[in-house]
């Protein structure tokens, strides 16, 4: 079975209970939605999780949900991706290196939707915010944390993409453009690291998932008609664990 064929079977992946034991994994947008569920799932499979997000209260709730049942003590790293500068990410790298020494995984999950409107009506301020959070912040954080990922024996870097980042559908504006950029960034980075690094780089398209962003984009949709974040975790576990060694430069669907 080829690597890609193997990857396409992971919707039914059953992870061993200690899949991520001893691993240090950072998750952005960890305060709610897919990010919160991914953080709790990684912790349930043994990882020490760094919860990265903007709202401390939400991060603390995820922290408690991990620690109370006996998971490895997580860490909280608050940061506003819209306003953070290069120095903020350098400080992040230094603090995480001092505390953990390395990173074994980084899930870029944080993102903003922006407007659902024609390009002709799109506000420049909204466009800039979406591109800052969804693209530029990912670039700056990735660049800053690559040295910590390189210290891992087998690191996984995962970006969150979307179906509208593969086919430019109308009225998705900056969000769609940002996901096209994410796909391109991940491909460039995967190819740069392929022969010289132990870091594999992939994208996950969650598909229709019961989150606040989905509810904002589709206000008339019945939430029970789409999968929960818990339903799509198999692919996140697969790509974050050692079973996906050798798979890089792919954009995979969770559904």
Q: Please bin the fraction of helical residues.
A: 40-55%
CATH architecture: 3-Layer(aba) Sandwich
| Alpha-beta content class | alpha/beta
The CATH class: Alpha Beta
Radius of gyration: 17 Å
Order of helices and strands: HEHEHEHEHEHEHHE
Between the first and last Cα atoms, what is the distance in angstroms? 20 Å
Strand tally is 7
Shape assignment: globular
The total domain count is: 1
Mean pLDDT: 93
The order of strands across the largest sheet is 3-2-1-4-5-6-7
Into which percentage range does the β-strand content fall? 5-15%
CATH superfamily: NAD(P)-binding Rossmann-like Domain
**How would you characterize the largest beta sheet?**
7 strands, parallel
Low-confidence regions = none
Tally of helical runs: 8
CATH topology: Rossmann fold
Provide a short characterization of the protein structure.
This protein has helices at residues 3-7, 33-44, 56-67, 86-100, 124-150, 173-193, 212-217, 233-240; strands at 24-28, 48-53, 75-78, 105-108, 155-160, 199-205, 251-253. It has 255 residues and is an alpha/beta fold. Helix 3 (56-67) links the parallel strand 2 and strand 3.
């Amino acid at each position: 079975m080829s690597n890609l064929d193997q990857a396409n079977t992971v919707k039914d992946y059953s992870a061993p209970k200690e899949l991520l034991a001893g691993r240090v994994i950072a998750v952005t947008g960890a305060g709610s939605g897919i990010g919160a569920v991914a953080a709790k799932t990684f912790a349930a499979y043994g990882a020490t999780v760094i919860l990265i997000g903007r709202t401390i209260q939400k991060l603390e709730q995820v922290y408690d949900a991990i620690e109370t049942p006996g998971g490895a003590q997580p860490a909280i790293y608050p940061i506003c991706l819209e306003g953070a500068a290069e120095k903020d990410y350098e400080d992040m790298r230094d603090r995480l290196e001092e505390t953990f020494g390395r990173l074994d995984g980084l899930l870029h999950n944080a993102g903003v939707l922006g407007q659902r409107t024609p390009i002709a009506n799109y506000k420049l301020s909204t466009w800039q915010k979406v591109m800052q959070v969804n693209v530029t912040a990912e670039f700056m954080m990735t660049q800053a944390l690559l040295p910590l990922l390189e210290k891992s024996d087998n690191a996984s870097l995962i970006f969150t993409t979307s179906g509208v980042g593969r086919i430019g559908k109308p009225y998705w504006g900056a969000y769609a453009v940002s996901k096209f950029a994410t796909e391109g960034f991940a491909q460039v980075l995967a190819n740069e690291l392929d022969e010289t690094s132990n870091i594999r780089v992939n994208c996950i398209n969650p598909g229709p998932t019961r989150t606040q962003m989905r509810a904002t984009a589709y206000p008339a949709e019945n939430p029970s008609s789409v999968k929960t974040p818990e339903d799509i975790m198999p692919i996140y576990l697969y790509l974050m664990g050692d079973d996906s060694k050798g798979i890089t430069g792919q954009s995979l669907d969770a559904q």
